[in-house]
């Protein structure tokens, strides 16, 4: 199966839906609202004047939010629709940004630029079958002393939902609706892979990234899973037998 073509078609379709959703609130963004959450803002800190590569950037809200904070940004995504919309948004808010339509692995083969920061977040890694190749792409894109910031959904929630926690060479292939509120019933075929925390960190270490911190969070900033409940001022939590489930983690590393 050509999983890149399958997922590209799905994300082209999702992008058109997401642009009209309350979940992404594009109108609020155009009026100056940041799409970034407290977790990644605290993890990454001051980006003023730094070059930042955002892998799997979707249609660029987070990328452009980092640009508003002073970063010199480049966003990469496999979806032609997403990249077209990202470029349009950059023009509308008059911010300089570079957006590249490529899948992560092709970008890794062709990229020769080095960055101060590589950033990726929230539901990105499950679309990639080979994390060693991903980690090598990250390392190649970082300057010596450059920093990776990965903020991602925790695999523990997937396990409770009936998916494998441990890596597998065989993907999960499903017809899924999107996670935004405006079109939950419209489905696309999606191809994803499970990745454990140990697989992720080992891939980064083997690629020459030194892990500086690893943090886990019991709250998600997004209500995008079943069984979540809102906690005022915190976000959304999930309880299993009365105990909080880890929903998000953050890894910082340095080349």
Q: State the low-pLDDT regions, or none.
A: none
Shape: globular
Question: What distance lies between the first and last C-alpha atoms, to the nearest angstrom?
Answer: 34 Å
What's the CATH class label? Alpha Beta
Note the topology:
Blueprint (H helix, E strand, L loop, with lengths): L2 H16 L7 H5 L7 H7 L6 E5 L5 H8 L3 E6 L2 H13 L5 E4 L2 H7 L4 E7 L9 H11 E12 L1 H6 L11 E6 L9 E6 L4 H10 L3 E8 L11 E3 L3 E3 L1 E2 L2 E2 L3 E7 L1
Parallel strand pairs: 1-2, 1-4, 2-3, 4-5
Antiparallel strand pairs: 5-13, 6-7, 8-13, 9-10, 11-12
Index terms:
Rossmann fold; alpha/beta; 255 residues; 33% helix; two-stranded antiparallel ribbon
How would you characterize the overall build of this protein?
- With 255 residues, the chain is α/β, with parallel strands linked by helices.
- It contains 9 helices and 13 strands.
- The chain has helices spanning 3-18, 26-30, 38-44, 61-68, 80-92, 104-110, 131-141, 155-160, 197-206, and strands spanning 51-55, 72-77, 98-101, 115-121, 142-153, 172-177, 187-192, 210-217, 229-231, 235-237, 239-240, 243-244, 248-254.
- It has a 7-stranded mixed β-sheet, sandwiched between helices.
- α6 (104-110) packs across α7.
- The protein is globular, with a radius of gyration of 17 Å.
């Amino acid at each position: 199966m050509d999983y890149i073509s399958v997922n590209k078609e799905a994300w082209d379709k999702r992008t058109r839906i997401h642009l009209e959703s309350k979940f992404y609130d594009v109108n609020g963004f155009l009026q100056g609202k940041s799409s970034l959450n407290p977790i990644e803002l605290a993890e990454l800190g001051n980006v003023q004047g730094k070059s930042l590569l955002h892998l799997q950037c979707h249609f660029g809200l987070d990328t452009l939010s980092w640009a508003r904070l002073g970063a010199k940004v480049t966003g990469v995504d496999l979806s032609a629709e997403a990249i077209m919309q990202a470029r349009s948004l950059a023009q509308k808010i008059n911010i300089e940004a570079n957006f590249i339509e490529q899948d992560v692995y092709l970008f890794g083969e062709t990229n020769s630029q080095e960055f101060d920061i590589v950033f990726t977040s929230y539901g990105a890694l499950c679309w990639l079958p080979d994390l060693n190749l991903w980690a090598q792409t990250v390392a190649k894109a970082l300057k010596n002393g450059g920093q990776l910031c990965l903020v991602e959904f925790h695999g523990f929630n997937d396990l409770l939902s009936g998916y494998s926690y441990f890596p597998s060479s065989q993907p999960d292939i499903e017809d899924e609706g999107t996670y935004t509120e405006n079109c939950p019933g419209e489905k696309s075929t999606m191809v994803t892979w499970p990745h454990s925390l140990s697989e992720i960190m080992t891939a980064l270490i083997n690629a020459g990234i030194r892990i500086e911190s690893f943090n886990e969070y019991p709250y998600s900033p997004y209500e995008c899973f079943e069984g979540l409940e809102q906690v005022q001022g915190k976000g959304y939590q999930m309880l299993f037998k009365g105990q909080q489930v880890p929903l998000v983690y953050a890894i910082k590393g340095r080349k």
